Hints:
By secondary structure, the protein is α+β, with helices and mostly antiparallel strands.
Amino acid sequence: MKLLLVVLMSAMALPATSLQAKKKPAPKTARKETDISKPMAIPADAVQDASGDYRYTDPQGKKWIYRKTPFGVSRLEETPENANANAAGKAAGAAGIKATEDGDMVRFERLGPFGVWKWEKKKSELDETEKAALENSQAGSKTASKQD
């Protein structure tokens, strides 16, 4: 009895699937659709700057900034705020870091969520933020010695 029921249900489902296959596709519209599944590429004419961003001016005269991120390439329109954001971000990141020179090594301290983070690096291996923190601490010590 169960076998008869399974065969009957299969026979009824078969014509339903063939009707769905015969449906006509929706008519194509005249509007242009972009394929978002393709990753964005950096234009060949784009020029890389010192921060690693790419700058490009399109044929309409708009200026764009292209950045490589872990999720692909991102594009944003170049405005005065966007153009200076990278330099301001590095300076702001160095604001909370204390740097102390010890010969060829530099010791850093920064207040983190779980206490003070300490690390040291050679002067030749410093990144931009650490260089800015070292310059800030040297400028701070020079102004403190002038006041004495």
